[in-house]
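Progress against Task 2.4 (sequence-to-structure conversion) is shown through the following example record, which the project officer requested during the mid-term review.
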Amino acid sequence: MPVFSAFDHRFGVFVWRRDARVPVVLLGLAQDPLLRAAVDKARLAQEDGALGAGRLLHVEVPGVRGAVSRYVAIELADAESTLVLVRPADEAAALLDLAATVPFAFAILNMFLTHPYQAITVADHEGRMRYISPVHEKFFGLEPGAAIGRRAEEVIPNSRLPHVARSGKAEIGDLQQVSPQATRVVNRIPIFEGGMVVGAVGQVSFSGVEALNRMQQRLQQLRDEVQHYRRELSQLRDSAGSLALVGSSAPMQRLAREIDAVARLDVPVLILGESGSGKELVAQALHARGRDPGAPMVCLNLAALPATLIEAELFGYEAGAFTGGRKQGQPGKLEQAEGGTLFLDEVADIPMEVQVKLLRVLEDRQVQRLGARSGRHVDFRVVAATHRDLRALIDSGRFRLDLFYRLSGVVLQVPALRQHLEDIPALVQRFVQSFCERNQLPLPRIAPGVMAYLAQNSWPGNVRQLRQRIEEALVFCDGKTLAVENFARYQDPLGLVAAGSEQLAPMAATAPVAAPLKVVERQAILAAIERCSGNKKQAAQALGISRSYLYKVLARS
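Structure tokens generated for the chain above:
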């Protein structure tokens, strides 16, 4: 068999007659008795297939010292004989395996070449076209076969197949402008044979401009969502970073030590401090430094809820408990805080009738939803905060003394900004950096005199007010330098008059406070109420303070 001798080391051929137990033809590798035995074993291990249908056999030939040689055998049979072609197990003959074992292999290959939405182009190592799909020929207005032998760049504008054929490096998911009106998604893949690059194949997505536009719109939507979540992450980092603890002043160092001392203890904490001083951030620091920072932290601002909804928010309700509720019911904040921290902000605003139920929960740890017949045990840590004078509320009968004792296992006092003005430089740096990162702006230089100007203000709105003033100034600065002039655009004693409202003379950087703080607060609130046509709720929202604090200021003599 001289024709087959050149392939003795790569292939083996077995032929059996139906009436013979041993092969009648043995060529090439098939002459090895160990391989012949392994092929017989592999054939017996599989059930006979239909006549004419090919099947792949995985053949293992044991060698010396435990070594195993692996082969792939293709078995074809008809009514009279069986032929088995054996080759070493590698990727070189995958096309042969497909053709031999899949009856519709030709239809598969033809589908790849004639698919209406996926075109294929083939260039050799010199960058000359060797094949182009019919759908691609039609797109470029070519007669069948007219592109063969031409330079790829002559046939397809901006073609990079010659570059890939030279470099041997694939280009995946590239956008190619094939005409002024058409852009296609292209994969360019080098083809290797014998360790050498022999050409390149281009796979072109031909689904039309509309589909591409939809994909581009989806990509833009995803980019916008990523930017949105980045901004939210920046805001969460600001909160989690406990901005109220920024600074090295004595009051802030004392507060930091107290947080560290109580954070890991299972005791209730009551946080006191003026509005805007950072009470919620102190609560977040307590949770983050606690025993299990990964446990839930559930927050409820009691001043922001109508009195009629506070009970449902705290305790939850069963299905059908009241009109307007969810059909399946809803767990309350007390249940949601299971194993973690429940933060009750502005706890002084809780109605008296709800105070009784909350006290019972804090005592026996049993929560009963509205409309439920029984309760369930919950375990959580309660942290409460308020800017109100609890002693005055207790004396007037508007806050229960026993609830106060249950909430105030440890009392933390957050200092007002005027009590640690030396921390303003550190706060300014933090707020400037946060604002610029959130809005993707370069960091401006902070001009001399800014810190001194900010330090001489009274800051009745505390750290929250300082942040608002800084961000407003950043909006109107030139992007390079944050100057005093950016803060002194309006004479605004509280620092809360929005840009675009009545314009007054700018404040000088060295202007002293002309009136006591209480007088300034009252005047600002009265002016806001007048601007809001007497609506105190809108006035409080415009000033960035709670309605309860607005009434407190108005009640002063």
